[in-house]
């Protein structure tokens, strides 16, 4: 038996924060009748167990409650709410600050002056050394050395120019790496199948939220990634290197953008507020 009433806890938090059901509906995009069902603990009225858990978390986030804790309560796994250690008082911090050793304080006050003095000495030493080197080089280099340097420069330039055609020929022989290609194979309002060819391993999937939206990734029928995006937030996940197929689920299709390896994935969400599953059939680059 759960130690708290989930619906009553959420309702009380909403009222304490002076949030109406209509306002909560606008924030979470959850229909008002489902919000009422949650507050009344009428969980059977929700479409599925998945939506029940997702809606409870979204509701909890908006009223600043721990959604994971409420899900544990729903599953019968009650756990104590986290406690936090008391912070040291401001008076204690001030006392520690004023109790600092006076000798140590004076040393700290003079430390910047000592540092500046050392930096100045280092600069003077470097300038003196560079000046001495200039005088030494002027005395050593003979007058005709400039002619030799110029001739040496011409010879080097000739060698470089003669080797360039060979390098160009070698580089032109290298085959170009094929670019990743994405194609739509089948599409309906609630499901799409897309083919990806010449993909680099590991395949990275990046989600960006236009509005608050839940996204998930399944490999071989197992949910390997899930996240609730906020407006403008981006998150990236990597598929296993040997994954030949993945299914992406977007809770409300029009509220998310998807990229694979930094290339936009046009899964054609349209204006749909329904869930959409996107199946990716992946062929990797050789």
Give structural notes.
Residues 146-180 are annotated as: Disordered. Residues 146-160 have a biased composition (Polar residues). With 286 residues, the protein is an alpha+beta fold. It contains eight helices and ten strands. The protein folds into two domains: 1-117, lambda repressor-like DNA-binding domains (434 Repressor (Amino-terminal Domain), Orthogonal Bundle), CATH 1.10.260; 181-284, Lipoxygenase-1 (Sandwich). The strands form two sheets. A six-stranded mixed beta sheet has the order 1-2-10-7-4-5, with no helix packed on it. The longest helix is centred in the middle third of the chain and has 39 residues, at 102-140. It is flat. Residues 82-100, 138-142 and 144-154 have low confidence and may be disordered.
Keyword list:
286 residues, alpha+beta, 434 Repressor (Amino-terminal Domain), Lipoxygenase-1, 2 domains, Lambda_DNA-bd_dom_sf, Bact_Cytoskel_RodZ, RodZ-like_C, membrane, DNA binding
